[in-house]
Structures are given as structure tokens and as C-alpha cells.
Write a structure and sequence with these properties.
4-stranded mixed sheet
């Protein structure tokens, strides 16, 4: 895929380019409208995230890294037919206060301030979905408390390796 393959879609849904736009252009448009801090969206049908989504199951706080998605859990938006405004509305609601969500019987969305950050988050969500799925094979995993997830979310505000100056 090259630059010549890109399709530009205006906010009203009109498209220019050599191909038709993705059937999911609506949720891309609506997420960008609702979330000015979002500069990139990754939508995927990654196998473990989609497996949980096919069970209408989000990912609860079984692991502290859930906080990478911006909240205490990763929600699963209710099902709606692909490409519809209804699906877009569900996705936007599931992303409130979050940077990722699952889409029931469909897949996953991850958002970020850059394509790199959105892709990194999508990979992290797929990893968490796999770990959660594996834990479910043994039983229902213990969940972290709301108080602990609040602590983790606060710590994630300054998470990472600072760059030393000098």
C-alpha cells in the first residue's frame, strides 16, 4: 500500500481517491469529532480481542496494564451491524474516558495522539486480551480493586523512563 492508495474522507462522508472508503469511516469521523486529542485510530480484528468481543465481554482489571487503555477496564461496545451509524455511536460511547474498546462480535479500536501510540496500544490490548483469555481457561481471574486501579491510573500519568538532560 502506498500514498496513492489512500482515500481521503471528508466529515460529510464524501471520499476522494482511487478506492472506496472503509465501511467504518463513520466511527473514524465521529471519534475524531468527539476527541480532539486523537490524531490516529487503529481498528483491527485481532484474534484474542475479537474472541472476547464475540462473547460480548470487555476486559476487566485482572492486570494493572489495563490502565494503559485509560481506565479501570476495557469496555465492549454493544453489537451493531458493521458500517452503521449505530455502531459508530456505540464505539464513541465505549471510548468515553478510554483510549481503547472492543466492539461486540467485531473487533477492537485503539486511539492515540500519533499512529505509533495508537498502534502500540492496539498491540497492548491484544496482549491483554490473550492473557485474559488464557486466565479464563483456568477460571475466573481475581480482579484488582477500584482503589488499586485509581492508584495505577495516577502512576501512569508519569509512567515511563524520563530523558536525562545534561
Amino acid at each position: 500500500m502506498g500514498d496513492d492508495d489512500l482515500v481521503v474522507v471528508a466529515l460529510d462522508g464524501t471520499a476522494t481517491g482511487p478506492h472506496l472508503p472503509s465501511s467504518e469511516w463513520r466511527f473514524h469521523r465521529d471519534i475524531y469529532r468527539e476527541r480532539p486529542e486523537v490524531a490516529a485510530i487503529v481498528h483491527t480484528h485481532a484474534p484474542f480481542a475479537t474472541t472476547l468481543a464475540c462473547l460480548d465481554r470487555g476486559i476487566p482489571p485482572f492486570h494493572y496494564m489495563i490502565a494503559r487503555a485509560g481506565g479501570r477496564d476495557i469496555r465492549c461496545a454493544p453489537y451493531a451491524t458493521f458500517g452503521t451509524q449505530e455502531l459508530s455511536d456505540h464505539a464513541v460511547r465505549a471510548l468515553e474516558g478510554r483510549r481503547a474498546c472492543l466492539l461486540a462480535h467485531h473487533g477492537m479500536i485503539a486511539v492515540g495522539a500519533s499512529l505509533e501510540s495508537a498502534l502500540e496500544l492496539a498491540i497492548e490490548v491484544e496482549t491483554l486480551a490473550e492473557m485474559y483469555w488464557r486466565a479464563l481457561q483456568v477460571g475466573e481471574p481475581a480482579l484488582l480493586s477500584d482503589a488499586e486501579m485509581t492508584t495505577v491510573l495516577e502512576k501512569f500519568m508519569t509512567y515511563g523512563q524520563p530523558i536525562r538532560k545534561g
